[in-house]
């Protein structure tokens, strides 16, 4: 007698930022993990070029900006209950973030790409656009170009502007900050 098999149901668990904080504190999740759309992503270690560019950009931002801004360097940016990426750099209006950061307070997000260019221009750009980030840059270490995403409409960015190394990208919302990769 053949007994029909019941279909298998696969259950996905969607995590929140609070879940990840608790799991990290208990040692179940690595501190380099990111929460993206409710899923946990383990992030690889940064390569030498990535580290050099990120630190050089962080120094430039810190020198150029007043204390009226908060600069995050490779730390969590809570976009929503289910999204907490760790961009390489970000600038917020005012002081350190407490909880979810509203798009009005996010003035600039920068990702440095040496091996992650496709993701930074694709999934990450979609995520930041959907969360209303008004100025999102991807610094391509390999081609020494900056891809500038601005002013999302209906949760998506128009095609980015490519700024070559000898030209300057000027922040939309951060007074006094521009960047030429030829200077790095």
Summarize this entry quickly.
The protein is an alpha+beta fold and 184 residues long.
Task: Annotate the secondary structure layout.
Elements: H1 17-25, E1 34-36, E2 39-41, H2 48-64, E3 69-73, E4 89-93, E5 106-113, H3 117-121, H4 123-130, E6 135-140, E7 145-150, E8 161-164, E9 169-170, E10 178-179
Parallel strand pairs: 5-6
Antiparallel strand pairs: 1-2, 3-4, 4-5, 6-7, 7-8, 9-10
Description:
The protein has 184 residues and is α+β, with helices and mostly antiparallel strands. It has four helices and ten strands. The protein has helices spanning 17-25, 48-64, 117-121, 123-130; strands at 34-36, 39-41, 69-73, 89-93, 106-113, 135-140, 145-150, 161-164, 169-170, 178-179. A six-stranded mixed sheet has the order 3-4-5-6-7-8, with helices on both faces. A hairpin with a 4-residue loop joins strand 6 (135-140) and strand 7 (145-150). It is globular.
> Number of DSSP strands?
10
Strand order of the largest sheet: 3-4-5-6-7-8
- Terminus-to-terminus distance: 74 Å
H/E topology pattern: HEEHEEEHHEEEEE
The chain-level structural class is alpha+beta
Most strands sheet: 6 strands, mixed
Strand content: 15-25%
Helix tally equals 4
- Envelope shape: globular
Q: Which features does this protein show?
A:
184 residues; six-stranded mixed sheet; alpha+beta; 10 strands; two-stranded antiparallel ribbon; 4 helices
């Amino acid at each position: 007698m053949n007994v029909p098999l019941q279909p298998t149901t696969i259950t996905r668990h969607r995590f929140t930022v609070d879940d990840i904080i608790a799991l990290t504190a208990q040692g179940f999740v690595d501190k380099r993990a990111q929460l993206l759309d409710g899923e946990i992503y383990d992030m690889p270690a940064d390569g030498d070029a990535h580290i050099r560019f990120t630190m050089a950009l962080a120094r430039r931002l810190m020198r150029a900006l007043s204390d009226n801004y908060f600069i995050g360097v490779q730390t969590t940016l809570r976009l929503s209950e289910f999204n907490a990426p760790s961009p390489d750099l970000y600038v917020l209006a005012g002081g350190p973030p407490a909880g979810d950061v509203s798009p009005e307070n996010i003035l600039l997000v920068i990702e440095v790409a040496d091996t992650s260019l496709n993701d930074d221009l694709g999934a990450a750009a979609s995520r930041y656009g959907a969360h209303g980030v008004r100025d999102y840059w991807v610094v391509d270490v390999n081609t020494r170009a900056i891809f500038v995403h601005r002013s999302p409409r209906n949760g998506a960015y128009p095609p980015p502007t490519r700024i070559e190394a000898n030209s300057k990208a000027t922040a939309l919302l951060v007074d006094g900050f521009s960047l030429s990769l030829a200077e790095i």
